[in-house]
């Protein structure tokens, strides 16, 4: 009997060991051949290295990726495979980050990125991205693969990015920016010579603006915050601590939209009106209630968080550059000029709010001379490419708006690489609206305020990353122009 039990125990142990080995072999990352990567030592792939690179801080994912790529020295240079010790520069073209069974191929070569995203049709929006948004807005463009349904949504929403429609929205954007100015003047009167947190204020002003453009009325976020301003504050080390305003009370508003289909969609009062008018005129392309709801959610989500984050980065850059502020103020007080374009474009480049985009290969490809199979997840390091030292020079990481101006002071859009909105047919749909909002807010703020330096503890350029790269702190100390 004991022999039988021993045999059974041995068989159980052996079977368990075999099963464990099978599970382990399935979980361990499986690198694509000939693409450089860290040694594969366990099922966690590069997660431990990423944690180590973060050094206990909330460091952006792509910054950690740069450090990991740097560990490989010249081996990461897939383009020419030369053995050099400067892999942390832009000569590092592609690498592989292992975060689980399926590797992520990191690409930071500009020409190859343009070929894959613009010229070829071998990539699709990553399924991981689709799945991330499916739960909240399953019928919005951002959740869809590139199919006929997605193209239908693009056609119906297309007029919202036309010049005619955007010009009609300019008054609303300007009103939102001036509302923020009024609020900040009141806060500055209370705080005096102390800086105050601007993060939530910019967020609320941006929310008011994009909701107004989308459905035709603002939420009243800034008005609510203005009404709730205290007369006193707690201060320490030059920083004023003002209680954050409560969200505005919920509002019920019936939106009556005419469906006669008369007039152009670009004559609509808001994006909701425009979509409904377009539907009425092209009845066969009706989105339905859920489709309209999710498209509006996409506009609000995509147009609020990223825009407000860019503005938060911009006021931080301002505090360290009084010369740029003075030049911009002098010019925007007269008319929109090339230097405003330069300031906004440089902020989009340096902030790297969307530092990477994810795609999936829908057929086998050869990337930088190396075969990569269908289904592989690709990550394009847009932020790294926008700060490529071989293109911009040694000061590529610095915020210097004049790099976008010619010697004659003319704005040069092709001065160098910058990809804040991605590339290809799945690039940011609302980029024209985003740029218009940012330019308008910057012009209004620059006319009204001089942004003074803030204390070191809240003036650093530390960042953290959620879906987008955000500043850890955003405080302002406002001065008035004479």
TrEMBL record:
Source organism: Rhizoctonia solani
Positions with a binding annotation for heme: 428
Signal sequence, start to end: none
Protein name: Cytochrome P450
Keyword Metal-binding annotated: yes
Metabolic or biological pathway, per its Swiss-Prot or TrEMBL entry: Secondary metabolite biosynthesis
Keyword Repressor applies: no
Family, as annotated: Belongs to the cytochrome P450 family.
Cofactor(s) required for function per UniProt: heme
SUPFAM superfamilies per the UniProt record, alphabetical: Cytochrome P450 (SSF48264)
Keywords recorded for this protein, A-Z: Heme, Iron, Metal-binding, Monooxygenase, Oxidoreductase
MF GO annotations: heme binding; iron ion binding; monooxygenase activity; oxidoreductase activity, acting on paired donors, with incorporation or reduction of molecular oxygen
